[in-house]
Design a protein that fits this description.
four-stranded mixed sheet; 10 strands; 130 residues; single chain; 16% helix; alpha+beta
Length: 130
């Protein structure tokens, strides 16, 4: 059934052109196509794709919409910060980041926003989980 299919994650964006520049220039994703409605499609690993779909301001959610698994979390954070990406820091009773990174069970993660306000994450599996 669906286990053998490729997926396209669709994210709402107020300005597809601005968002397209963020995903290509800042994150290094390869643009594939632009649909008739302005949806911009980018390649993700393993044949999957990301669609940036035109939407009204405020269509973004208050939770993580996409997480990228990376082998070197600190290295990726440095590289993205050098390009101007701003990572979030949290200090709540049950959730805290140190140098932008939270440790949660078998992984470490860091969060940032795209140009449209969508919450994105980088995560790294700890050795015992790899």
């Amino acid at each position: 059934m669906l286990t053998a299919t490729r997926t396209t994650t669709m994210l709402p964006v107020e300005d597809p052109e601005r968002a397209g520049r963020f995903y290509s220039d800042m994150l290094g994703l390869k643009p594939l196509s632009t649909g008739p409605d302005g949806t911009r499609i980018f390649a993700l690993g393993q044949g999957d794709a990301l669609g940036l779909m035109p939407a009204e301001k405020g269509a973004q959610t208050a939770h993580t919409v996409l997480s990228f698994e990376v082998p070197d979390l600190e290295g990726e954070i440095r590289e993205l910060e050098d390009k101007g990406v701003k990572f979030e820091d949290y200090d709540m009773p049950d959730f805290k980041t140190t140098n932008h990174i939270a440790v949660m069970g078998g992984e470490r993660a860091a969060w940032f926003h795209d140009s449209e306000g969508n919450i994105l994450c980088l995560h790294e599996l700890l050795d015992s989980e790899a």
